[in-house]
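Q: How do we represent a protein-ligand complex in a form that can be generated token by token?
A: Start from the inputs.
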Amino acid sequence: MGVPLFAAACERQKAAESEKRFDGKLRLPPGQTLAETQSETDPSKTESPSPSTENVAPRKPEPKSPEHYDARHKDRQRLPPDQYELRALRDMGGSQPLDTSRKAFRLKVHGEVSKPLDLGFLELAALPNVIQTCDVHCVTKWSMFDTVWRGVRIRELAERAGVSDKARHVIFEAAHGYTANIPLEEAMKDNVLVAWEFSGAALAPNHGAPVRSLVPDLYFWKSAKWLTGVKFVVRDEPGYWERGIYHNHGDPWKEERFNERG
Ligand SMILES: Nc1nc2c(c(=O)[nH]1)N[C@H]1C(S)=C(S)[C@@H](COP(=O)(O)O)O[C@H]1N2
Ligand SMILES: [Mo]
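Then emit the structure tokens for the protein with molybdenum atom bound:
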């Protein structure tokens, strides 16, 4: 622990975040209004008693209620270039595993770490976690404002696993070999989570149950559904889409949609 490079990355990140939040520009572009959001896939309607939560042993009451974190950017035009607003998450598919239950779930936190973790769902959910409001942006041009998620910050996992000062990238690993890569510095941001709730309910199977990554500042393909691992690496490992048509980084405000081959 006490890794200088990791600590420095966190510090830089904090400085950058506070700059962003307090620069005081209008968050809503001129002539825009806010609309209520509503989930197309409200799990309380679509999953009659979810087998995934039924099988889970009752949890001990949590020591304290989670922090509410407003991660909506107030410093720049809210809708990134060439995006339009949707009022619900669109199911973008992907190869859903057969078993999306919390009972079957394991998350490996591994790679360049001194204390690899292998967490069951209850172990993950017992870690300090946040309820976060943020916007998400799909590369196919839809964005959804004011999405609400609950999860543990990647930074929390990195600290617990003792990430090495050699690590430079984070690889999200998901069912059927899907992966997505992000720079370590960005993974340490306050708004990057491993999430298990959307809109106050357990993640729906088609949206990544039981747990997905959430990287709101990059296009939504970086938010890997059906997450199985968080791997810290020295060298970048372009993920499923990054090896295909999409950009290695994927910043919506820079319109980093496609790579040179795309
Ligand atoms: N495991 C996995 N995660 C994935 C994908 C996928 O195909 N498999 N698709 C990505 C893409 S391209 C998008 S836009 C979002 C869509 O999430 P949603 O279906 O919950 O809207 O998930 C991302 N995560
Ligand atoms: Mo996507």
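The longest strand covers residues 142-153. The two ends are 40 Å apart (CA to CA).
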